[in-house]
């Protein structure tokens, strides 16, 4: 099976993968989450985005345009997955507190979904090697895969999660760059 490896963490993701409710999705890029604390850079996780390439190519308004690729990834009506693999031990509370801090200002309503999401993650043991999968369906609902999993039906949480990871100052700039470049090439 072909893989895509994030170079700074050494984490590999399958180039294509079938997730629990959908057909084959394709990796459009990987990147690390590196948190800077003072002068120290700490690797937290590697992240990969998978998309339904055929649906994305059909929906891409302007092939070759990074802005169109970003708009498509932020609001595309097709299945998308963000899959993270932790490269250090962290408590569920630490992980959820970090997401809560950056996502709450972006939520713009229905923060109850974010509260449910963060409460779920807070209760999880998250150790080195743990994979966390966020699947965003065409209807905007988000499945969170750890065992047991969680589904949040509201669209706002998925919109916010993808907005965060696709923002210029988001947590994984290398991954964002790879995703936009790959999606911009669709249909070209």
From TrEMBL:
It comes from the Eukaryota. One of its GO terms (molecular function) is intramolecular lyase activity. InterPro entries: Chalcone_isomerase_3-sand, Chalcone_isomerase_sf. This is Chalcone isomerase domain-containing protein. It comes from Chlorella ohadii.
């Amino acid at each position: 099976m072909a893989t895509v490896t994030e170079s700074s963490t050494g984490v590999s993701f399958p180039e294509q993968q079938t997730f629990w409710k959908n057909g084959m999705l394709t990796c459009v890029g990987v990147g690390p989450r590196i948190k800077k604390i003072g002068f120290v850079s700490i690797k937290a996780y590697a992240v990969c985005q998978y998309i339904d390439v055929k649906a994305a190519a059909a929906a891409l308004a302007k092939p070759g345009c990074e802005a169109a690729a970003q708009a498509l990834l932020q609001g595309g009506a097709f299945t998308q997955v963000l899959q993270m693999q932790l490269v250090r031990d962290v408590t569920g509370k630490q992980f959820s507190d970090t997401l809560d801090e950056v996502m709450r200002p972006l939520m713009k309503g229905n923060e109850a979904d974010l509260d449910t999401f963060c409460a779920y993650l807070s209760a999880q043991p998250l150790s080195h090697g743990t994979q966390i999968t966020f699947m965003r369906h065409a209807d905007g609902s988000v499945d969170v895969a750890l065992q047991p999993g969680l589904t949040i039906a509201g669209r706002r949480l998925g919109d916010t999660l993808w907005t965060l990871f696709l923002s210029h100052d988001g947590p994984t700039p290398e991954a964002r760059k790879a995703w936009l470049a790959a999606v911009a090439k669709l249909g070209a």
